[in-house]
Specification:
CATH architecture: 3-Layer(aba) Sandwich
Structural class: alpha+beta
Order of helices and strands: EHHEEEHEHEE
Number of domains: 1
Distance between the termini: 31 Å
CATH superfamily: Gcn5-related N-acetyltransferase (GNAT)
Radius of gyration: 15 Å
Number of helices: 4
Helix content: 25-40%
CATH class: Alpha Beta
């Protein structure tokens, strides 16, 4: 999808002082957002935490990790007002490149079964469904299943 927005998009590591803005975006982007304590724990730990800025305004964020040679996309969020403009795909590409630099040979993620836009985004970036986690996500009084997806490395031929 071609972006309609104007301005300069950049990616940088998330800082502690970004947490308020990140959590505002998280709360507008998801019906069941991460807790601030969870996000802060990722920021203080070994996870890779990023923000995406549009003209110095934080409009989204992502969290990933590497365990041995496996990458894990833990969270990608674009603020509600900025969704459907290509920012999620740009952030995902940036995070996949970072995971590759960190030594990840394959990448895993979970996505809500009902989140068709995210599933489509991941499929367009080479992810394939490899499993299902029953009742993985909170969804009010019930729990929603998660689609488990994996992206294998692209094998280059010479």
């Amino acid at each position: 999808m071609e972006s309609q927005m104007k301005g300069r998009v950049s990616y940088r590591p998330m800082l502690t002082e970004d947490l308020d803005r990140v959590m505002r975006n998280e709360r507008t982007g998801y019906a069941f957002p991460w807790a601030e304590s969870h996000m802060d724990s990722c920021l203080q730990g070994k996870d890779h935490c990023w923000v995406i800025e549009l003209d110095s305004n934080i409009v989204g964020h992502g969290v990933s990790s590497v365990i041995l040679d496996e990458g894990h996309i833990l969270n990608i969020c674009i603020a509600h007002a900025w969704q459907s403009q290509g920012l999620g795909g740009g952030l995902l590409t940036f995070m996949l490149e970072d995971l590759t630099r960190q030594g990840a040979h394959s990448v895993f993620l979970e996505v809500r079964e009902s989140n068709l836009a995210a599933r489509h985004l991941y499929e367009n970036h080479g992810f394939k469904q490899i499993g299902l986690r029953k009742g993985y996500y909170p969804a009010g009084r019930i729990r929603e299943d998660a689609i488990v997806m994996q992206r294998l490395p692209t094998i280059e031929t010479r």
